[in-house]
Amino acid sequence: MFDTVLIANRGEIACRVMETARDMGLRCVAVYSEADAGAKHVAMADEAVCIGGAAPAESYLRGERIIEAALATGAGAIHPGYGFLSENPDFVEAVEAAGLVFVGPGAAAIRAMGLKDAAKRLMHEAGVPVVPGYHGEAQDARFLAGEAEAIGYPVLIKAVAGGGGKGMRLVERAEAFADALKSAQAEARGAFGNEAVLIEKFVSKPRHIEVQVFGDGTRAVHLFERDCSLQRRHQKVIEEAPAPGMTQEMRQAMGAAAVRAAEAIGYKGAGTIEFIVDGSRGLRPDGFWFMEMNTRLQVEHPVTEAITGIDLVEWQLRVAAGEPLPMAQEELGITGHAFEARLYAEDVPAGFLPATGRLARLAFPPDVRADSGVRSGDVISPHYDPMISKLIVHGPTREIALRKLARGLAQTQVAGTVTNLAFLGALARHPGFARGEVDTGLIGRDIAALTQAPAAPAAVLAQAALSAAGLWQGDAPHRGFALWEPLARSVTLRHAGEEVVATLRVMAPGRIEVALGADRVLAERMGGAWRLDGRPAAVLFREGAEISVFAEGGQVFELVDPLERAAEASGGNLIEAPMPGRVVSVHAEAGQPVSAGDRLAVLEAMKMEHTLTAWRDGVVAEVLVAAGAQVEAGAALMRLEDEAEDAA
User: Fold this and answer.
1) How far apart are CA 559 and CA 471, in angstroms?
2) Best-predicted range by mean pLDDT among 419-428, 434-443, 464-473, 575-584?
3) pLDDT above 90 coverage of the chain, percent
């Protein structure tokens, strides 16, 4: 076996691969962009090589530079992780031409599955059930509209080279098809350099169930299924294995179909066969269809590892080194149940917009597997995916595993950036999800309840007030109070856009009453720790004026200094960039009347397109940006004025 492997990736997956490679006694080489010079995966590696600028096109997508780094450091193999170059057949051929081992499938297998339309034709020939749709090469808009009519609405438009929900649009009526097609093609062109699409019948109560396969180039096995139905905008949120409600008959049928698919292309390494399943009648062997194959390791692979006891990265490295499949199908089995939740830096109330910021604190409970590429003090960069971590739990039953997930999320501590932690916690406690009533529409149906910001209990507010007054670390109660006044002090906190005034009154040493309007909370310090109304306080973290209490999904407070309070800027007429990005297109001009909801501009950020709309009726007074411009978060893009002002 090669003794050195270069990991051609960054973040969580680079760290994950290194952990197994080092356990196998291999030397690890990292590559990094200028923005990632201080990243976790760089610190973990035995050697690291800078390969270019922050943008992926200047670094992680530079295949020739990565190969040069491998040769210069004595690496015998390159592991691509997922994303970036992991499914690029030209890169695979270049790696092999350089005399190196590519840890993954051959270029021919990647090409066979790289375009969804061709892959579905191939799968149909291999006897794998395929969802009804159009997968041909003709791309004329009128022709595609006719095919959609023939298939019957609702339909899905999907980029043939797509993934991660990019270039995908759901169309429910014929009148919306043309605009949806243009939008899907534009996003696909920007994300993959290929605007070709296919059209599929949309299953009304779909479940997304995928099968993990592993091949050695000749034969293949499956490592059972994962249910990835909890999705938002076609992106997975929580995955689990095995699939709830799965019957032995259907598991055998899906597993056999997945193995046929892998063996039909001589697949080598880890791969995933994704199926769309009709959940309206329960799980039936005649109700699943091939969607696509991911010719790489999946983000959600840890849940398969948890239920099988198999280290998939170890298998990848061993098979890449020429070993046969480590186990036969009859030797593989399922033990217990596992969940994975994807923790992201994103602003849920603002519509799940990707977020940036420095992780002032990041900590996970000890009984949760946390696969992460960042640490406390690291910065979530606007250049890459904003994933913070994957949290994985395992239990003997689905019910126990789900309780462990809910508890693990509740005990996770993140400060310094907004996250989807409270949203994940709400999902883990969702009664329908707990019953196994899972389909891809669950989040959409209950989005209002799932994204409702949890209210801060009085005890949590009291904690924040104690910290604001400088008492959290156990300082003497009189500190921060004027000696010529009674032992009482008021502090003002800003939380969820509103200000809260808390009055602290010292009752005795280590005993303080916190008044919050009509509410009263008794804080008592016992054994070096605070108790609030007799209950232990949650973990708290403070940095400057920002106070984070790790309860109810994480509650963030800002200490308001009355001496520095500034008047709120009106700003109500400005359309601002919600995050750093590139302006793809501008759809309004000065003097144009607009209505609430009208599209004004499209911003590309975090590898996704985001449509910015008018929040009220009015007239465009100024257009402050042009298509192609790179803007920072908060940059003014347009200014609106009232129609009456325009008439005047």
Assistant:
1) 14
2) 419-428
3) 72
Task: Quote the CA–CA distance of 286 and 121 in Å, as a whole number.
Answer: 19
* Rounded Cα gap, residues 137 and 510, in angstroms: 75
- 19 CB-near residues (< 8 Å, 6+ apart): none
State how far the Cα of 257 lies from the Cα of 354, in Å rounded to an integer. Answer: 37
Which alpha helices (H) appear in 98-174, and where do they start and end? 107-114, 116-125, 141-151
Measured CA angle at 210 (ends 206, 211), to 5 deg: 150
Which run of H or of E encompasses 277? strand 268-278
List, in order, residues 6 or more apart from 644 with CB less than 8 Å away. none
Q: What is the DSSP letter of 502?
A: E
Cα–Cα distance measured from residue 221 to residue 214, given in angstroms and rounded to the nearest whole number: 6
pTM: 0.81
Q: 193-232: per-residue pLDDT in tens?
A: 899 999 988 887 889 999 999 999 999 999 999 999 999 9
Quote the longest CA-to-CA distance of the chain: 88
Residue type, 560: V
Distance CA 626, CA 582 (A): 10
d(CA 384, CA 418): 16
As to burial, measured by CB atoms within 10 angstroms (0-12 exposed, 13-18 middle, 19+ buried), residue 524 is middle
Average pLDDT value for the chain: 91
Identify the pLDDT of residue 257: 96
According to the model, what pLDDT value does residue 281 have?
79
Hey, which residues does 52 pair with through a beta bridge? Answer: 33
How far apart are the C-alpha atoms of 444 and 574, rounded to whole Å? Answer: 29
Whole-angstrom Cα distance, residue 580 to residue 381?
A: 10
Q: Identify whether 445 is a catalytic site residue.
A: no
Tell me the pLDDT band of 647, cut-offs 50, 70 and 90.
very low
Catalytic residue among 65, 232, 296, 525: 296
Residue 22 burial by Cβ neighbours in a 10 Å radius (0-12, 13-18, 19+): middle
pLDDT, tens digit (0-9, with 9 covering 90-100), for 315-330: 999 999 999 999 999 9
Q: List the Cα angle 354/624/385 in 5-degree steps.
A: 15
Q: What is the DSSP string of 467-491?
A: HHTT-TT---TTTTS-TTS-SEEEE
C-alpha distances (whole Å) from 147 to each of 170, 195, 221, 242 are 15, 17, 36, 36
Task: Look at 169-183, 497-511, 570-584 and tell me which has the smallest mean pLDDT.
Answer: 570-584
**Whether residue 476 has pLDDT greater than 60:** no
Tokens 């398969």, residue located: 304
